[in-house]
Amino acid sequence: MPIRLECLSHTPLHGYFDPAPEVLIEVERVAAAARERVLAYDPELVVVFAPDHYNGFFYDMMPPFCIGAAANSIGDYKSLAGPLPVPGELSRELAASVLAADIDVALSYRMLVDHGCAQALEVLTGGLDRFPVIPVFINSVAPPMATLRRSRLLGEAIGRFLSRTGKRVLVIGSGGISHEPPVPELASASAEVAERLIAGRNLTPEARNARQERTIAAAKAFTAGTGDMHPLNPAWDRAFIERLASELPAVDGMTNAAITRDGGRSAHEIRTWVAAFGALSAYGPYHASLDFYRPIPEWIAGFGAMHAAPVAAA
Ligand SMILES: O=C(O)CCc1cccc(O)c1O
Ligand SMILES: [Fe+2]
């Protein structure tokens, strides 16, 4: 019942507005090494914990957590579009098992995922359809959100189920660390923007393009130091990484308000890493390595990558 973990930041700005060549080369080297590890491991099942950026999940019915029993990638920015090979029966069993463990989770037979899921699968496996994959959505952008502790416990419950399958499992966390790209907030939105956050599925190509251009413009302003975006927070990012590696339950002390204050509104994507480590922790003691960390303003990201495995397997 082996398990491996890979966590990494995502950014849709890769290929639109890149950092200096030496940084880009280093990130691509780290990504290639992670992909080699994954391909050598050859997982029988991938569980990817991913956020969504108002592409698949909206306030018309916003769950804190949702397991996909069938899913499609929308292909925003440069990410791949198309169906994910989801083992639906296993997803349903997973949801039943998590609910039986007192963690309330939704189930979707028509999940839409965006770059927050697709980019991790592409980087780590070379495509969307290389391995059977169960996507697990964690609300990381639409308040109110569950506690960070709840993401850890969700991960743990999923890990207990996975360990019973006997499968060679890879868990992925996609997102974070500190960052605050220009994603609107319902509380301060105009009526028109609010409607988009409540029921904004299936943007027209024009609206999609305008949205992507806004993100690229924001990245340029952020890198130039103009505008008033939340700063990246390398010290906070590194402290978080350290907790994952050596004292996972300590993340329970991080309140949602403190995450927003210290890391920015999209720093809530760290929930995906916490859930992935929670799943790994269900298998016993583990060893984690930090493969990369650097604040990359061009990508609006405190950009990190880690991998981990049970101590017995290391
Ligand atoms: O398209 C959006 O809504 C925001 C995209 C976005 C930008 C920078 C870093 C991210 O992690 C991210 O997801
Ligand atoms: Fe994101």
Q: Could you outline the blueprint of secondary structure elements for this entry?
A:
Layout: E1 3-8, H1 21-41, E2 45-50, E3 65-68, E4 71-74, E5 81-84, H2 88-100, E6 106-108, E7 111-113, H3 115-125, E8 133-138, H4 148-165, E9 169-174, H5 191-199, H6 205-224, H7 234-246, H8 256-263, H9 270-281, E10 286-296, E11 301-310
Parallel strand pairs: 1-9, 2-8, 2-9, 3-6, 4-7
Antiparallel strand pairs: 1-11, 3-8, 4-5, 10-11
Helix pairs in contact: 4-9
Bound molecules: 3-[2,3-bis(oxidanyl)phenyl]propanoic acid and fe (ii) ion.
Notable features of this structure?
314 residues; alpha/beta; Protocatechuate 4,5-dioxygenase, Chain B; 8-stranded mixed sheet; 3-stranded mixed sheet; binds 3-[2,3-bis(oxidanyl)phenyl]propanoic acid; binds fe (ii) ion; oxidoreductase; 3-carboxyethylcatechol 2,3-dioxygenase activity
